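User: My instructor asked us to take a sequence, write out its structure as tokens, and then describe one feature of it. I'm not sure where to start. Here is the sequence I was given:
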Amino acid sequence: MATARIQPLSASELRDPATADKNQKVIYTVWMKSLVFNGHGCTIYGQDGCVAYRVDNYACARSREVFIMDTGGKTLIKLLLKKNFGFFSTWQGYSCCDGDDAAADQQPWFSVRKEYRVLKNGRAAVVRVAAGGKAYTIDGALRGSEYYRVSDDADGASVAEVGRKRTASGLALGEDVLTLTVGPATDHLLVVGLVVVCGLISRCI
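Assistant: Let's start with the prediction itself. The structure tokens for your sequence are:
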């Protein structure tokens, strides 16, 4: 059962993101599966093991329009794929916090595009993000990657990290069960949006 694989943190590790100290990190569990039977999407659980965010595209795989919702089904972010030339496609995220949909003339909250850069291991793994006048880089966000991080271009500081989830004994769970660690004073919803886009880019969603 899926619920048996998504294990909440221990009581000593639990922190409610709404009341957590801004100097503390918050940990989510990302299951790269939809809650809808035969659907496409992903589910993000809070530290208590309850659903915090979800993406359900139902029977539509690799959609160019994706919605990130809260546990009650309210749309929080609308993601649109903008095709340019060749490999230069961009995912744009629109805030829907004040309504059910983004306004037609609304500027995107953030945009994400994949770049190709040869690393020491011969793999290309760079994703550029522009959000609210700030710029971020996501290193390692490729299909098959067990770890990647989101860093602030201004100072290189890590704002979020994603990796395979492991039990307290160190046993790795399935490849589609990840741990998302969000750094202090970081916009959680923005990071969730970036993780979903990474899943779309790597075709995991």
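For the description part of your assignment, you could build on this observation: The chain has one domain: 24-201. Try explaining in your own words what that tells you about the chain.
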